Queue: 2 jobs
Job 1
Amino acid sequence: MKNDPFSTQFDHALEQLRSSLGPNDLDGFEREVWAEIAIRDERLFPRLRRWIFDGLPTVSTATATGVAAVTMFLGVAMAFFQAEAYGEQASRSMEERYVASIHPVLRSESHAAEGSQPE
């Protein structure tokens, strides 16, 4: 996105104001307001990157490895259970179609239903 002149002038004025006022020149309320503006001015990516790099050393290697192992185990278990359920459903469906195709009563009912439908 291109910077429009107003945005550029606003950023320049904001920098001038910040540089002209020292931290001792502000009272408590003004300091809190400027701190809130500074937090909201930060972009998402640099803030996220700083959070990851600042927070990463506090997590131990054993904890990170444990979390990764548990996540992988849960993913494999969920995939196995979903595949098992899909296999059972597909097998049941094929069995029902087979039985319907060889069973004389079910076969005659399906042919009767096909013949009774208006064309």
Note: Residues 60-119 form one domain.
Job 2
Amino acid sequence: MENDDTENSGTQQPKKPPEPPRDFSDVEQFLDGETPWRDRERSQLFPERPAGVEFGVLLKKTREADGGIVRCRDFTEIQQIIGKQSQNVEVVWIPGSEFGIPWELLPSTKFRGREGAWNYFSTVAKSKGLLGLGLLAFAIYQKEFFLIFFAIFLILPVFDALMTWLAFPKNLLAREVRNRGINITLFHKWLEKRGRSIKPLIGFLVVLGIVFLVQVFKSEQLSVFGKFMAPEIGEAALEKKAVIAGEWWRILTSGMLHGFIFHIWFNGSALYSLGRCLTSLSNVYTLTIVFLASVVGGSLASLAFKTISSGPTVGASGGILGLLGYLLFVALRFRKTIPFDLTNMLIRNVVLISLIGVLGAKFIDNAAHAGGLITGIVVGAIIGPHRQDWWNQKANVVTQAIAIVCGGVLAWTVYKTIIEIW
């Protein structure tokens, strides 16, 4: 009996290469120009098709690569590039569209509503939940400290999933879910493109790091680990008795100090994240004013609830909470244009900080946190944008002048802090 290879029923037929999508109507309907991220003419999110490019990808410029336009043979090659380096892909060019499309908005991309909330929770719970449970086991020895990590790695994902679930009503149609997803994606890409200069913010983070290293160097602890866990706070920490005695500068200098390495790591990460968001929505002038005012507001609130025998308070948390309060005020004030997920993220941070404050009440100054948050909200009401086209508002001369003075005060505060702990 002869074998006929041409009639081998077990042979798998090669997969048909995917065809490029031809319908971009769900994207185009959003390009009505009502907001800058939905303005096709003026937005950088939708670059025109370069001459001679039928299939192509625009890559970001990174330290490892120059970026630029990559011509592709077909849609399959585009998908391969997206699969390998999606984070570096700006837009794709495909026949059927006159402009570049952010790859997340291709018709094949599905934006999940309530189903996405459960998927998110299950993914995060699997990756971080076990770590949270492991840290909980150490609560016998360091109850408050490890409960905080447990809250971050397990309780917070539950809250995130709940916020996503509430944001998508049950009766929302699949088309409406996708429309919301498109609006959110365009907003965040616009925010990233808009990104004001963050060099002053990075510079201030470096300064805080230098101050912490001075604290470590001046610490009387013998071990390196001990130094990083208990750095010197000298005569610059916030103490009610000392402030009453006339050392008012502690209201400012305490915001430049940190109690241990995890303290400055958490605060530095939060300051960078919130500060970058604030400068993108507003400007660096506003950032300077809000931070300094909130450091003072947090310190005054702490003094109001401190007793003479209370221990010293250090940390930039008051100023950071002020940035959060300002952003939350702006997001709620312009909730008709700012996508809900930014507001959800800010509310999430408030819940997280409140939860950490409750669990770590023995060593966390919750009054300073609350004072900084409230100060940020108040400053937002005073100098925050008030027009519906908030993205077009710029800092006026008065705001710029106040910000320059605040910058000078911050520079003096850093100098005074180092002098006092030296």
Note: The mean pLDDT is 82.
